[in-house]
């Protein structure tokens, strides 16, 4: 499915519908508590946490249900400067001016642009997933070992199965929908190499092998990485290169130096600041920092020895 307003593509119609909100500015998900409207349901869920979670300071007895207030409080403990985002309805705050400048970019120009189409995203993870959508996926036949990168071609193959019109190779189990493919396949059983490189004279059995070989002679690399400026010969090579950036850790904690590859790992880490992972003793109300610490505390009631 393709967006009719840009070059964005997706595997489902629902994803196209969600994507079009970037063009319309529609914000259908509204918070029932404060009235804030958001484009995506996952954004609303994250926002609702600010109304339900109690943030507890590890250094003193301060508690609050407001994430921004808690961040400001923790920055005061470290003696750092407080830098707040000035955009409406944005609660971002950081002790780092550099982090704030990076955050402000998310309100303006989108930072990641696909060099294969016009798709842009301010979220690195979404950008990487979009690049993967450009790569060809293999579709396998459930009746034989045939596979194709095209769903349409696979459908033709399956139809030939149903009609009994598949042509089989006399030397192996390979089968095809027409004689031309059988002729090409037969080269794998012979020494015939009709595809010759005009630069160095090397010959190949298949045109795809010659195409891959020719890349070694190409000096121009038109596909450029928007993150590190590395250039590649083909879009497939660029996508493989982009995977190396997944080893980076773009999701940074505003309260300490922790960073993570995925946002969910950062969210889990933040619980160490909010006190969500603490455990309370049902007998006396004592709060432990972890399940293991709670188990040790319970021995003071039971008399159990380690």
TrEMBL record:
Pfam family, one: zf-C2H2
Domain named C2H2-type: residues: 1-28, 29-52, 55-82, 167-194, 195-222, 223-250, 251-278, 279-306
One GO location term (cellular component): nucleus
Aminoacyl-tRNA synthetase found in the keyword field: no
Protein's cellular compartments: Nucleus
Known function: Gap class segmentation protein that controls development of head structures.
PROSITE patterns noted in UniProt: ZINC_FINGER_C2H2_1 (PS00028), ZINC_FINGER_C2H2_2 (PS50157)
MF terms (GO), sorted A to Z: DNA-binding transcription factor activity, RNA polymerase II-specific; RNA polymerase II cis-regulatory region sequence-specific DNA binding; zinc ion binding
Family the entry assigns: Belongs to the snail C2H2-type zinc-finger protein family. Belongs to the hunchback C2H2-type zinc-finger protein family.
Major localization class: nucleus
Keyword terms, alphabetized: DNA-binding, Metal-binding, Nucleus, Repeat, Transcription, Transcription regulation, Zinc, Zinc-finger
Identification of the protein by name: Protein hunchback
């Amino acid at each position: 499915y393709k967006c009719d307003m840009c070059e964005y593509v997706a595997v489902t119609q629902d994803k196209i519908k969600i994507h079009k909100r970037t063009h319309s500015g529609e914000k259908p998900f509204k918070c029932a508590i404060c009235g804030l409207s958001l484009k995506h349901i996952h954004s609303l869920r994250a926002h609702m946490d600010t109304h339900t979670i109690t943030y507890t300071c590890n250094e003193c007895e301060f508690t609050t249900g407001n994430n921004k207030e808690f961040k400001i409080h923790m920055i005061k403990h470290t003696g750092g400067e407080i830098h707040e985002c000035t955009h409406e309805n944005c609660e971002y705050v950081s002790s780092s001016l550099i982090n704030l400048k990076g955050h402000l970019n998310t309100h303006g120009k989108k930072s990641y642009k696909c060099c294969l189409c016009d798709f842009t995203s301010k979220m690195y993870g979404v950008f990487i997933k979009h690049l993967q959508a450009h790569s060809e996926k293999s579709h396998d036949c459930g009746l034989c070992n045939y596979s194709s990168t095209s769903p349409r071609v696979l459908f033709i193959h399956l139809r030939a199965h149903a009609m009994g019109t598949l042509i089989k190779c006399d030397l192996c189990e390979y089968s095809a929908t027409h004689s031309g493919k059988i002729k090409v396949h037969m080269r794998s059983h012979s020494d015939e190499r009709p595809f010759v490189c005009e630069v160095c004279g090397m010959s190949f059995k298949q045109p795809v092998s010659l195409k891959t070989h020719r890349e070694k002679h190409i000096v121009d690399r038109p596909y450029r990485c928007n993150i590190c400026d590395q250039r590649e010969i083909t879009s497939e090579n660029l996508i493989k290169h982009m995977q190396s950036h997944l080893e980076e850790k773009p999701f940074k904690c505003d309260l300490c130096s922790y960073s993570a590859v995925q946002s969910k790992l950062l969210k889990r880490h933040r619980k160490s600041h909010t006190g969500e992972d603490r455990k309370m003793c049902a007998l006396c109300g004592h709060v432990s920092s972890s399940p293991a610490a709670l188990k040790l505390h319970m021995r003071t009631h039971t008399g159990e020895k380690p």
